[in-house]
Amino acid sequence: GNSQGFAASSLKMDRGWISLLAGYTQAGRDFRRVRLLNQPAAETDRENVIVNLVPLRFLRFTVSRQNFLSPDSNNHNIRATENGLSVSGGVFGLQMHSALFESISEGQHITGTQIGVNRNIAGRLDLGMEYLHSSSGASKFSSLLFTLGEIVTRRLRLSQVISYTAHQASI
Fold first, then answer.
1. Is residue 44 within 8 Å of 25, Cβ to Cβ?
2. How far, in Å, CA of 33 to CA of 39, rounded?
3. 42: alpha, beta or left, given left = phi > 0 and alpha = psi -120 to 50?
4. How much of the chain, in percent, has pLDDT values that exceed 70?
5. Closest to 18 in 3D by CA, of 50, 51, 49
6. What is the pLDDT of residues 49-101, one digit of tens each?
């Protein structure tokens, strides 16, 4: 740890209709792990909480706050925070989900939205549509994705994705 302090603790609770996964990690500003070949780019830092509420068998709400620490090119750590709120559920074979995100790092503030729907047909085909939008100040980005997946075997799935971004389609 380069003579830098490090401490971590975690808590996990699952009551069926509500679950909580929480942790707290404190690392010194210049804390570094021993370099590995496949070292993760970021690791958790400070408070991290994920709460899942399942009021009905087919409906789930998730609230999260995650903090990350990642080394930059000057070998100093950059801190980032991500807050999220999502809801997902299924009815009549249709799976629907939506999420709101907020990301804050080094003075940048980015918000994002995701809305999607998926449907399995006859256990062999998966159809999906996703709308993604993010904004940071005056900069905005939107994309519409269509997916078609064929389930060939339990271990093999073929997928085709069509993406519409800035009035251009790509496959």
1. yes
2. 9
3. beta
4. 88
5. 51
6. 999 999 999 999 999 999 988 777 676 778 899 999 999 999 988 999 999 99
